[in-house]
Design a protein that fits this description.
about 50% helix, Nucleotidyltransferase, domain 5, two-stranded antiparallel sheet, about 15% strand, alpha/beta, about 230 residues
Length: about 230
């Protein structure tokens, strides 16, 4: 991996294992669902049955590409701040996510752990989740494994590094640019004394940020398909 990073730095060129990337892409089955969660955690548990600093999902973004070349469809959920968001989060996710095809996430352990915790709270979703879990594909893997590495990543396989390095697009235009800020802003406008207009503005920014996480995954997969053909 250090050799790959060194070669990329010296040549200024992306280092690509086309066969490995092609194998990764071959496992994707339509409809492809691109999924991302945002969570918050607090020292003092805000709801019953929550541990200190337990990650509570309050938002998801889902882009669904039903066939090759199809326009993505977008679905989203953002908690209203009235009580524990997890029951409504799970209800809406189950309603909109496809029952077939791949579910692409970035750093799968985060999403799978949150879903498993939600199923502990809401056991009626356990059989649904058991059917869903084998369809999850982790888009982090080809980057963490240095199957694709661009010098602009500066050694990082995070989505925030990969997206601009691979596609030239990123988070620079957004008011909220990473998950920690999203969490703090949600807590501020949900539990703080914030004017309605400010609350509305932040909620729109949260939607834009989480939406870019899933749209960005589509751009990454599309670019990887191009890279394999080059």
């Amino acid at each position: 991996n250090q050799k790959i990073q060194h070669r990329a730095a010296v040549t200024g060129q992306a280092q690509v294992d086309k066969a490995a990337i092609a194998n990764f892409l071959d496992q994707l089955e339509y409809p492809i669902s691109y999924l991302d969660f945002e969570t918050f955690a607090t020292a003092i548990p805000p709801f019953d049955g929550v541990r200190p600093f337990q990650q509570i999902p309050f938002q998801f973004s889902l882009h669904v590409v039903r066939a090759a070349g199809a326009e993505p469809e977008h679905f989203s959920f953002l908690a209203d701040g009235r009580g524990d968001p997890r029951p409504e989060f799970m209800r809406q996710l189950k309603t909109v996510i496809s029952s077939t095809g791949s579910i692409v996430v970035y750093n799968a352990s985060f999403e799978t752990n949150r879903l498993a915790e939600c199923c502990d709270l809401l056991p009626e979703y356990q059989s649904w989740y058991r059917q869903l879990e084998p369809r999850i594909v982790d888009l982090l893997l080809p980057f963490r494994g240095f199957r694709y590495y661009h010098p602009a990543q500066c050694g990082s396989a995070s989505m925030k590094a990969v997206l601009p390095a691979l596609t030239g697009r990123g988070y620079a235009d957004l008011a909220i640019q990473e998950g920690g800020t999203a969490s703090l802003e949600f807590l501020r406008v949900t539990f703080g004394e914030v004017p309605a207009r400010e609350q509305q503005r932040v909620r729109q920014e949260l939607e834009r940020y989480c939406g870019l996480d899933t749209e960005g995954m589509i751009w990454i997969v599309d670019r990887l398909r191009q890279v394999v053909q080059e």
